[in-house]
Specification:
By secondary structure, the chain is of the alpha/beta class. The protein has a single domain (about 1-205), classed as Rossmann fold. Helices cover about 35% and strands about 20% of the residues. It has a 6-stranded mixed sheet, with helices on both faces. The protein is globular. The two termini are about 30 Å apart.
Length: about 210
Amino acid sequence: MTTQQTRIDILRHGLPEGDGCLRGHTDFAITSTGLIQMATAIADLDSVDVVVTSSLQRCSDFAQQTAKQHSVPLHLLDCWKEMDFGNWDGQLQKTLWQEHNDALTRYWQNPWLETPHGGEALVDFDKRIHQAWLDLVEQHKGKKILLVSHSGVMRQLMRILLEMPENASYLHRIQLPYAARYRVTIFHDKQGKDWPQIQWPTQQQF
């Protein structure tokens, strides 16, 4: 029998500036369209106790507005930033494919073994997101949390929660458009074990 639940709604940022770029750690601004997309995506949220966000402005601008609207605490954290693509970060993907075709091909075929030039290894990104998740649950246990982050973070978190193998397939099989949202409800049993369950908002169900 469960004694406590933690609810975490995870929201991807809406449309940002930098169309066609590999965004990663590059701090592109959110567009007005992106803000509308994000507001629409969480319109059905009944309540929020705390807002946690990537420190990048394409996430944090909306998170700050939402925290103010609900009069709840806001936490801007670097650990929820997108993966760091190093020297590739912020550049047009078209240009990258022209100039680094072989390296990009190797990376996307096996990102667990290849690392972007000067960037973050996927194994380190995975560890970062896993630890960020453990810290989030420990610090806000029993609360209703809105987490605003990035598609790469959301995919990696799915891999961790569903215990997917460390291969490239999940990166291509999970589509998360701008302002995509999913919920994780964690059931905490009396023995101290956590039982996470990924859920989809009602308006996104078939």
